[in-house]
């Protein structure tokens, strides 16, 4: 008996409740380590008659005339240029952090005129600028278009996906690097993706316990400052250690998210409901038409007419009452609502009523 008791105590000491720990790299971003958006305007040439129409996109003709002038070709004034094989496009890309000149990035090309398709086209040299107006990359290359459009002489046409937009893998060469304070700043700041005082406190404690006391300091509910080594090589290794430290994040605030347009309802695990009784009615009205022919008497001289016959049926679901016990959880809320056959729109009405009655212990967010 004593042996069995000892085994039970050992197993009880080894058993621990499941802890949901996450790495710091999944909870926070390093301030300043971010991507930047680039934008440019250019021309796509080589289209099979699917470019911008004459007169409807004057900027395409103007851009083509300007490009020819820069190449040394003088277009006589008043000469009409038919850009049916040319399309004016916007080019945008995302410049990753720490990218260096000479590296290549993907670009997306989209028509801004009335071009029907960019399939088979080539983008001419296009400078990509940042928000500061400086050129950070140069894009050029053949487009990969996933869409397809075809049209017949009789007006029939078919379109698959979006043929007026495409991508160029590795289509831009980086010409300028974005300056970053990662290597020069004496302190690095971790910005939590979801601000929470409890999570910040746990992140600070985990870093100080792993690296050493005084390494991390909380700034606010979404920021933590970390003292980093001065040497760049050591700083990279240091941040590698920091981002792999596991922290148990705090439980989220109780929220119910309701999309009133689609009827989508999302309830997190922290939601609780106080004692409440909910009455939910479901009534279905069915109207069916059964027209009948009315025949006159053989010698009456009348005409045959169609007489409408309408039948109205009203059906009401009897399972429309349920009760919430004190402090029930998410599973019980969903189960109770499903038992009465309530749909998404009915669930929205029930949750709003519970919130107004003070029984729903959560923040109700309607988007």
Provide a short characterization of the protein structure.
With 367 residues, the protein is an alpha+beta fold. The chain is built from seven helices and 25 strands. It has a six-stranded antiparallel beta barrel. It has a four-stranded antiparallel β-sheet with strand order 2-11-13-12. Strands 16-15-25 form a three-stranded mixed β-sheet, covered by helices on one side.
Write structural notes for this entry.
The structure is a single chain. By secondary structure, the protein is of the alpha+beta class. The chain folds into three domains: 139 residues, no CATH class; 61 residues; 104 residues, no CATH class. The chain contains seven helices and 25 strands. The strands form nine sheets. A six-stranded antiparallel barrel has the order 3-4-5-10-7-6. A four-stranded antiparallel sheet has the order 2-11-13-12. The two termini are 61 Å apart. The N terminus is likely disordered.
